Amino acid sequence: MTELPPSGTVLGQLDQLSDPGAGPSTYEALPILLVRKGDTAFAYVNVCPHQGRPLCLPSGRTLISEERFIVCPFHGASFAIEDGACVGGPAGKAGLKPVPVRVEDGAIVAV
Asked: Is this model's pTM higher than 0.90 or not?
């Protein structure tokens, strides 16, 4: 797998995501899913640990359930927005791989 983005790399813009919501990053070297909840952003490698498929559809649409969970559109595995922990479905105890980020002047930036 490709290394995480270097610190300071802009991965996307907070205002481009619904609240709560998620979508793919503009970073091309590694598939990254950006997630928004209020003014906070989270980021994960955009791969479901169940079968290695993306967590978003080809259109970029990402399923968010109950304003708390990212849901894999292919097999229904669910992950907590705040830490990527698996909370249900076929991924078992395998969580999402986090990408450390911060919000800086509206930009979602790798830490």
From this structure: yes
Q: Which of 101, 107, 95 is nearest to 6 (CA)?
A: 101
Residue type (1 letter), 87: V
SS3 category, 16: helix
Domain 10-110 superfamily per CATH: Rieske [2Fe-2S] iron-sulphur domain (2.102.10.10)
Domain ranges of the chain: 10-110
Q: State the Cα–Cα distance between residues 96 and 85, nearest whole angstrom.
A: 6
Q: Per DSSP, which regions of the chain are E strands?
A: 10-13, 21-24, 32-37, 40-45, 63-65, 69-71, 78-80, 86-88, 101-104, 107-110
What are 70-81's pLDDT values in tens digits?
A: 999 999 999 999
Task: At 14, give phi and psi (nearest 5°).
Answer: -60, -40
